[in-house]
Amino acid sequence: MKIGIIGAGGVGAACLLAGVLRGSAREFVLLDRTAKRARAVAEDVAYGAPVGAPVRVGHGDYPDFAGCDLVMITAGINEKAGGATDRSDPEGRLRLIDANAAVFRDIVPRVVGVAPEAVLLVVTDPPDPLADLARDLAPQSPVVSTGTWLDSMRLRTHVARRLRVDPASVEALVLGEHGTSEVFVWSGVTIGGVPLPQVLRARGEDAGGFREAIEKEVRYANIAIIEGNNASQYGIGMVCARIAEAVLGDERIVVPVGAYRAEHGVTLSLPSVLGARGVEDGLSLALAEAEQALLDKSIAALRTARERALAPAHRPAATRSAGVRPVC
Predict the structure, then answer these.
(1) How far apart are CA 307 and CA 127, in angstroms?
(2) Which of 45, 47, 139, 197: CA 20 to 30 A from 131?
(3) Do β-strands 183-184 and 119-122 pair in parallel, antiparallel, or remain unpaired?
(4) Residue 120's beta-bridge partner residues?
(5) What is the rounded (10 degree) CA torsion for 44, 50, 124, 260?
(6) Closest CA to 157 of 223, 229, 218
(7) What DSSP line would sit under 223-268, residue for residue?
(8) Cα–Cα distance between 5 and 32 in angstroms, integer?
(9) What pLDDT does residue 327 have?
(10) Where are the alpha helices (DSSP H) in the chain?
(11) How many CB atoms lie within 10 A of CB 63?
């Protein structure tokens, strides 16, 4: 099993490190626009790899992706460089579409030219409209975005911290866009199978205040991390490694990753069956009326973002003239 990673910045390096430590595949190939950087990151990880499962860690160019089962695309302008770290900005990550759509128009055809059977995992922000673009550029390739799986893990973690329980005992989902319009499915949150409202009543907690505080922490978790460490990378790296394992192992686990939904005409996150060919099925979820209304708004925002990502103006030539280069 072989994984390719495009982009040797913070996110790409984190994906590589997490995949190697978890033994997600037997071979990894790292590519970056700056070949020297890809070589340095790959060598650094390779030197520590013998402490774990047997893997091969290399670097190279697009021809070296031949035989990849999955390719992670992490290249593009990140949130800090792209000015997407303002909590009051309703666009959030969507502000990065213009620059990163042009990067994808250059990258995706090169990947499918040498690895036509690979599942394309879109990690670059904003992942959902960029997944729509990747699907448009490579209609025969399975395309998955990281979606809201990391957001859901953040929600589980913050709920667990407040209740002083293990996050593994918390079931919670964030759906829709990986971004400002994401939807917190509070109606489905359980703690060891016990509905959250029942737990909060038993503890004398105010449900409204509980939800409001946690939503704020989760919605802006990436910005808080960037403010402290310049980039949000390790959590998404671990999630990407887990997605790769589910694909390479044809696990058919149900997780909130992004996939194109014909009924909505856009890529978004809903409970999805993840296996060898990416998202192979989706499950219906009954939401509370207010949650469904929020999801409808998220879908509308993603449709607008999709149109923007697919606009012909976003061509590689425009990227070069603007001096845009992959940095994350």
Answers:
(1) 14
(2) 45
(3) unpaired
(4) 71, 143
(5) 170
(6) 218
(7) HHHHHHHS---HHHHHHHHHHHHHHHTT--EEE--EEEETTTTEEE
(8) 9
(9) 40
(10) 10-22, 35-48, 97-114, 127-137, 149-163, 196-203, 207-219, 221-229, 234-248, 289-310, 316-322
(11) 10
Pick the catalytic residue from 59, 158, 178, 314.
178
pTM: 0.93
Q: Closest Cα partner for 235 from 218, 214, 210, 260?
A: 218
Would you state the pLDDT for residue 313? 62
Task: Please state whether beta strands 70-73 and 2-6 pair in parallel, antiparallel, or not at all (unpaired).
Answer: parallel
Q: What token pair was written down for 123?
A: 């990690």
Cis check: omega of the bond before 126, within 30 degrees of 0: yes
Mark the ranges of the chain whose per-residue pLDDT is less than 50. Answer: 314-328
Nearest C-alpha neighbor of 177 from the set 326, 37, 302:
302
Contact 144, 278 (CB under 8 A): yes
CA-CA distances (angstroms) from residue 74 to 7, 127, 164, 204?
5, 10, 34, 44
Assess whether 178 carries a catalytic annotation.
yes
